Structures are given as structure tokens and as C-alpha cells.
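mind reviewing this stuff:

——
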Amino acid sequence: MERACWQRRFISLAALVATLALASCGQAPHPGRTRPGRPVSGGTVNFAGYVGEGPSYLFPMYTSSYWDVGYVPWFSYLMWRPLYVWGTDGKPLFNAQRSLAYRPAFSTNAAGDTVAAITLKPWRWSDGRPLTTRDVQFWMNLLEANKANWAPYVPGKFPDNVKSIQYPSARKFVITFNGAYSANWLLGNQLSQITPIPQRAWDKVSASSPVGNYDMTPGGARRVYAYLQKQAATVATYATNPLWQVVDGAWEISSYTPVTNYVAFKPNPDYSGTVKPRLHRFVEVPFTSAASEFNALESGRLQYGYVPLNDLSAIPSLKAKGYRIVYWPQYTWGGVILNYAPKDPATPILKQLYVRAAMTHLISMGAILRDLEHGLGYYAAGPIPNPGGTNPLVSSYAKHDPYPYSVSAAKRLLTSHGWRVVPNGVSTCQNPGTGPNQCGAGIRRGAPLQFTLLSQVSSPLNAAITQLLKSTFSLAGIDLTLHIVNSSTELTLEGNCIGTSTCAWQLNYSMEFWPWGWPDWYPTGSEPFGCGSSSNYMNWCDPQTQRLIQATHLSSSVAALHAYDSYIAKEEPFIALPMPVFRVSAVKDNLHGVAPQDPYLGLYPNDWYYTKQPGGG
């Protein structure tokens, strides 16, 4: 994913405070401008896409290889809507209006199982046919037959935890789960995985086959899935393939350029949602660098772009050119993830909590937030985001750095466990064994503190933090070999390590590794930390982690989330770093409906509209 960018200029404290004050209001007033005029229909919005990557797979049943969480809500999500959506008025809350179904009616049957009765809203596909429970059944049949390929799949969870499902009418279906579960978790992370897809258009096994009911057998469902996957991989036909013209979202693809991933959308004239598109065209413009995006913004070629963090001093100039500034917070966690592939030589070292703690002691979280992120962000030590420091789901333990910056503390931890520390060199194990003053299980004499750090080239901020990690880790003789790649290569290298015995990287710096959002709105951890999860890039499999995650699935009490959050913060299977603001958005003064921006990083251009400025602006 593209990250917030760190570039050329610095901003004064006074200017930063002013920027934050304006941003907190949703938009910055423009001196000398009158209030906007009446809304008008039509117009095009050129929106700045991610740097160095673009949407390249649109079938909404994503595999791990294509599951770039950033582009899911910016691409297929615009055309095919999930059953349940979160993100309301800039807050991480359930959004009943945007969802395709009414809130589930939960009950408990005689066996003690949770039962969810779900009624679809009256909705139509763009070909005029109604969206029905047969479209839900089509999704479920494909998912059940191909679940190992489904990126969010965790063994034992959805759809494994579905005991039965009935479809009593065209708009109502009933799911019985295999036990008593938290309604919050079911709504936020299980039922949200359902994305109705058009059975009357897609239930085919070849381009020439008639539409049938192939999905009703496991073998047929596998053939349909293989056909749709193959079609989705043929990116040159995205704008012309009849399959992809049947949508239930607000937008249809009007053009797509495979080489650059340039994509333009036109409104779905039969969109059933309450807010119909007023724009005539929505374009996601790709960029190869943050600098090229900023140049396009300054020249006026974008109606909705962003200001790189080190270009904040350019805000007055942008405002004079007709932009306002909107602060886009994000509900996400990230930092340095570690890989625990069972036969990797580095794994016995990384499994030692004291090693992970020593690494964290070498990172000044305050300096990153203050000097590199310009104060536009937040820190939480665990995997539950805490933007603004106000999230009640975050434990008190995870609100503070459990291993604060101290080079001496890092060195003491290593020397007290049998390591010969060589600052600016390579520290080695001198006292192997499992005793309290020894290196730990599986670590041989002479083993080096030497790791490969995978990182992206997506932004100057990434580059700055990557170099910071290499420099500060060296103070305790932890040597990092940098492997810097583009975002698509990083996704491949991450996916290649899932469930494998060795890995090409041991550390992976990814500023926004796990944005909470589709299809995981509720911040539990079965996908990033669950044993056997198809999205567990770390290969972390710890019994206590599994027990605590399971507790968040069974109980809606905030205490269950706090216990999980505190444990991960203390054990540190990953090293949490401060999360910057996703974007300092720059939006044309006469473009409205964009704020507040979605904390899950979703896009809803059907809400956007232009106003006619006084004087013909």
C-alpha cells in the first residue's frame, strides 16, 4: 500500500497547529471566498490513487496474492458491495445505510447456538434483476468449495463455523453457527465476509456455457470459481467483459489501462442505494511517486489529491489555488512484523521475547511521531488502533510503549542473555542454552543478530524509517540487510512466506500493515495472528494468543478485547510503530460530500458533488 509521504520541506509548529485545527473541522475556510452556491449534477473528479501500484484484480473473492487491502474498497468495492459495511461519519461504527441488508436479528436456539436471521434490502442489479438470497447462496457455495483460496479464511472460522444456512425466501436467509458467539464479532468480521454476487450472470464455467446452477455441487462451484478467476486475471478486458458490467454498487468501469492501472468509472444508473451518484465520471489516477502526485496537485490536474507530510508548508499556496485541506485519519496498525517460519535459522532468535524487547528499546516512538510524521498520527503498542487517543477498545497497557527508548536497556537485555554485543558490528551468541542467562532454545553458539529487512519504496517516509531502523538497531549490534522493493513485490514476498518452513525475509517494515476494514471491521486478531490463517504473514502461532482471540469471538465484553490487546503489546509478535495520518487531503473548494473521510479508508464518490461557485466558478 502507498503510505503517507515524507519529502522536502518542514513546517513550523504554528503552521502545524493551524493545519490540525482546520483539519479537525473537516475543511479549511478559504479567506476571501463566499459560501458555495447550489449543487449541480455532472463533472469529473480526478482522484490521486496509490503510489506505485494500482487495482489489478476485481473478482471480489480475493486470494492472498491479490488481497491488497488498500484497493479493495477503491476498486471492486465500488461495484460489488459487501453485505455489511462499517464507517459512519468518520467513526469506526456500523453503517446501516450503506449495508445491503438490515441489521441481523440474533437469537440463541435450544442447542445454545447463535442464529442470525438476515433480511436483504430491496436492491437491484444493474441489469434490472433483483438482488436475492440466491446471489448470497451463490457466494456461499463458491466460498465453501474454494475457502482455502479466500484471503480472510481462518480454519475453524467463517465459513467453517456455519452449522447450517437456510434460504426461506428471496430476501431472507438464516445462518445457524456452531456455538454461541459475540454478536459484535459476527456482524463485524464474519457476516461481513459475505458479498452477494450476480448468480444469473456469473454462474458459468466458460465464456460459451449458458448460465446454470453449477455452484450447487462442490465440483461445479470449483469450476465456476476457476472460470471467474481466469476472467479476473485478464485485466485488458475489465471495461468490456460482460461479466463485470453487472454490478450492484454505485459505479461501473468505463475504462481501464492495464500498464498503468489507470481506471475510470461511470455511474450505475440503476443503483439502489439512497445516495445516487451526481458526478458523471470518477477517475483514480495512478502515480509512480509522491513527487509526481504533488506536482499534479499543484498544477490543478487533481480535484482530490494529498499533500505529502514534508510539503505541508505548501498548504497556503494550495488554498490560494482553490483547495481546502481535510485531515484523513486511519483506523489501522502497523510497524515491523517478524517472521516465525519454523525452519528459518532466525526464528529461534526472534521467538525470544527479550530480543523483541531489545529491538523495541532501540526505537524512539516519540521521535518518529514528532520528527518524521510531524505529529500527524498516533501510537498504540498493540493491534487495536487508537486514533486521537480516544478508542475505548484499546487497553490501558497498550496506550503506552512497554519498552521505551533506551539503548542501554537493549544492550543489557542482550548481554544478560549470553550475547556478545558489538555496537555497529554484529552481536553473537556466546552462551547458548535455555537457562535464564543464556541465549534461548535452538540458538547455537556464534549465531548472529543479523536479519533481512523487507521494505517498500512507496514513500520517502518509508525510506526514512527504514534507514532509521538500520541505524538504531546497529547501536546494539543488530545488523539489518535491507531488501527494498515495490509494493506489488512486497505483497508477493509476504504471500510466499505464509505457511512455509523458511522465508526470504525475517523483518518486514510496512507502515500500514493491517488496516482494519473490509472484511474485518471489529479489531480482533484471527487473520493476522491466527494459526493457519491464510493472511498470517508472520507464521505466528501461539496458544495463549489463540485463547485470547477466541475469547473476543465469544464475548462482546470490552474486557476480552483489552486482554488480547495487552497480551500482544507485551509479547510483541510485531513491533508497533506510530501510525501517521493516512492523508492530508487537498480537495477543490467546490467539491463537497467528501468529509468526514472514512477511517477504514473506503471511498464513496457517490456522495460527492460539485457546487456552482458564485461568479461561475
